[in-house]
């Protein structure tokens, strides 16, 4: 039986993961962490991870970037692997994740869905083939999302940049600059509204033709399933930084 410590257990994703794990026979949540004192779960909830003195096989975190420092400290000190699914980390925080991965097993991806991870490889292929096309990424999410553009949009832009012949810069706000589009840029645009779970479109605009690649998430369950599979994969692994490509390679 794989024991899970769920960080951010009182949130929307925390709820989806709790109900998903409750239906599994080989996995259980032994405790949760959430600073919101009003959170009620079927397992004990701690307001800080340092207050948990049990031992879980793996941590699943869907919380807030503010949780990262204590989470990494706990993971390194106790040797508990952690699936980091929270988005909105600063580049300094991403460096901290990479540093900690030398001492503990961490699984980090801005998007836990299999479809999005396929989209990443399709986008890289399209960017390599559609030489000279202008690339824009448009994402849409529900009106409660805090970070913009989404971690997934940035992950897509980073993956595309890797295969472009020249470094490009990201443009988030065309309103502030009155000038023509540069070839060496990727535009990132965030739409917020209603209950949209998550949509990402990559537009490759050339002369007289446009190619678009789109992914639409219809339920948060896809992220829960991805993170639970990642947790099962990560438990017992040696220190290192793992991502969806490792999971897919081991499927
Ligand atoms: N990687 C993915 O595939 C994926 C998918 C969906 C959501 N997310 C990300 O997961 C995070 C949570 O999403 P959500 O929709 O559940 O948000 P939410 O706002 O509904 O829930 C966040 C929860 O985290 C708690 N929290 C805040 N600070 C904390 C801390 N220091 N320690 C522990 N818990 C803390 C909050 O009290 C809240 O209960 C966001 O960053 C979101 O972008 C990632």
How would the blueprint of this fold be written?
Blueprint: E1 2-7, H1 12-22, E2 27-33, E3 45-46, E4 58-61, H2 68-78, E5 82-84, H3 91-100, E6 105-108, H4 114-129, E7 134-141, H5 151-163, E8 169-171, E9 185-192, E10 198-205, E11 210-217, H6 221-234, E12 240-242, H7 244-249
Parallel strand pairs: 1-2, 1-4, 2-3, 4-5, 5-6, 6-12, 7-9, 8-9
Antiparallel strand pairs: 7-10, 10-11
Helix pairs in contact: 1-6, 2-3, 4-5
The chain binds nicotinamide-adenine-dinucleotide.
Nicotinamide-adenine-dinucleotide binds at residues 7-8, 10-14, 33-36, 62-64, 66-67, 85-88, 109-112, 223.
Question: Number of helical runs?
Answer: 7
Structural class: alpha/beta
What's the overall geometry?
elongated
Helix content: 25-40%
Low-confidence stretches: none
Count of DSSP E strands? 12
Largest sheet: number of strands, sense, barrel closure: 7 strands, parallel
Mean pLDDT: 95
The bound ligands are: nicotinamide-adenine-dinucleotide
- Please, how many domains? 2
CATH architecture of the largest domain: 3-Layer(aba) Sandwich
CATH superfamily of the largest domain: NAD(P)-binding Rossmann-like Domain
State the order of secondary-structure elements, H for helix, E for strand.
Answer: EHEEEHEHEHEHEEEEHEH
Strand order of the largest sheet: 3-2-1-4-5-6-12
- CATH class categorisation of the largest domain: Alpha Beta
Tell me the radius of gyration: 19 Å
Q: Measure the end-to-end span.
A: 20 Å
CATH topology of the largest domain: Rossmann fold
Strand content: 25-35%
């Amino acid at each position: 039986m794989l024991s899970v410590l769920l960080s951010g257990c009182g949130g929307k994703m925390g709820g989806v993961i709790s109900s998903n794990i409750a239906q599994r026979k080989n996995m259980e949540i032994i405790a949760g962490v959430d600073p919101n004192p009003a959170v009620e779960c079927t397992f004990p909830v701690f307001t800080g991870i340092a207050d948990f003195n049990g031992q879980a096989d793996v941590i699943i975190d869907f919380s807030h970037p503010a949780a990262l420092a204590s989470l990494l400290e706990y993971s390194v000190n106790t040797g508990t692997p952690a699936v980091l699914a929270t988005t909105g980390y600063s580049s300094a925080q991403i460096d901290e994740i990479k540093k900690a991965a030398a001492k503990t097993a961490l699984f980090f991806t801005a998007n836990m869905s299999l479809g999005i991870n396929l989209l990443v490889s399709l986008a890289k292929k399209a960017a390599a083939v559609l030489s000279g096309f202008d690339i824009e990424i448009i994402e849409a999410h529900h009106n409660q999302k805090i970070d913009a553009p989404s971690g997934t949009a940035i992950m897509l832009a980073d993956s595309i940049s890797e295969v472009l012949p020249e470094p490009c810069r990201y443009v988030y706000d065309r309103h502030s600059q009155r000038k023509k589009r540069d070839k060496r840029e990727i535009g990132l645009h965030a739409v917020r509204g209603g209950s949209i779970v998550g949509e990402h479109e990559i537009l490759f605009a050339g002369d007289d033709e446009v190619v678009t690649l789109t992914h639409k998430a219809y339920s948060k369950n896809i992220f829960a399933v991805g993170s639970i599979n990642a947790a099962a994969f990560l438990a017992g692994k040696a220190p290192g930084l793992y991502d969806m490509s490792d999971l897919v390679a081991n499927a």
